[in-house]
Amino acid sequence: MHPDLQEVFDGVVARDPAQPEFHQAVKEVLESLGSVVDEDASYLPIIKAICEPERALQFRVPWYTDDGKLMVNRGFRVEMNSAIGPYKGGLRFHPTVNLSILKFLAFEQVFKNSLTTLPMGGGKGGSDFDPKGRSDTEVMRFCQSFMMELQRHIGPNTDVPAGDINVGGREIGYMYGMYKKIRNEFTGVLTGKGMEYGGSLIRPEATGYGCVYFVREMLKVKGTNFNGKVCVVSGSGNVAQYTTEKILELGGKVVTMSDSGGFIHDPAGIDSEKLAYIMELKNVKRGRISEYATKFPGSEFVPIDKSLDYNPLWKVKCDCAFPSATQNEINAKDAKHLIDNGCVAVGEGANMPTTPGGVEVFQHAKIMYGPGKAANAGGVACSGLEMSQNAL
User: Binding of substrate: at which residues (predicted)?
Assistant: First the structure.
């Protein structure tokens, strides 16, 4: 790393020593800026400033379970940078959520949003609330309590949140309804809304479809396409579902999907009928991916094994890989397994799903690699369209 940028990075670590995910995201960017600083050192103060959020909010979210028990979670919103527009970025509900993860996501969002060329700044938020196993009414009560505080800090020209892990149409609807009730106004303060109340056509599909289109263009450079390509996909949420749908449409075959419990491997391929089952399982029944293996003979479920220093999903033989679950899901060993098993292209549907060691393996092998800042920007680009539609 450039000595001046190393000094900036050391300052980031010294200020927040217990935020490894944020350090990783900052280091990844700073390592690429040495030539910029050599050419014009006046950028250095700007680079230093962009590594610090304009605002980081943390608040209490009290809510009641169906049996009347009081629960308390933490809510967050990191408003990273508004230099080119209102803060824009999703809300994540997951027990692993903390300030480090949200700062890394907000930092990544700044650059991703600017790549779309749309006037959007970067932000991210969420809570350590785990919706898994919760009833619709419990999720509703949590979302309403969360919005009771968040509404003070957002607005169509200030900060426009959206969905992320465990925050889909249901959660956006609950939060938007509460915002509208408190503020007595119908504005485009959230994106990812239902079509009936200001949402944009194809927004749910945009991130997954966009990632596949990105990889299609990479394959085109090499004179090939998705026809007959075997693909491995991680995750089973919104991004993974529509990544799989578009791969099937373009002639590829998806053989894996996963959730926090493990992954399913279907050598025959996840066809449209099987994908419809997964969509109902995840979006309606809120079930586990392991149920797929029971439903479809010939497939197998591999439970997660935390004692391993690699993910067996990435050992499945494939032509293309689409990490679409969460951060740091592909390490150096996983990346080597992919290369050894014939993978020629990787498209990141998730944010920072590959560790620095994994990225080095991909680059050394000279395979086609689409980093998340570009490959998964289709979702926020479509959100920009929704913001424009809501402003009419």
Answer: 88, 109, 112, 163, 383
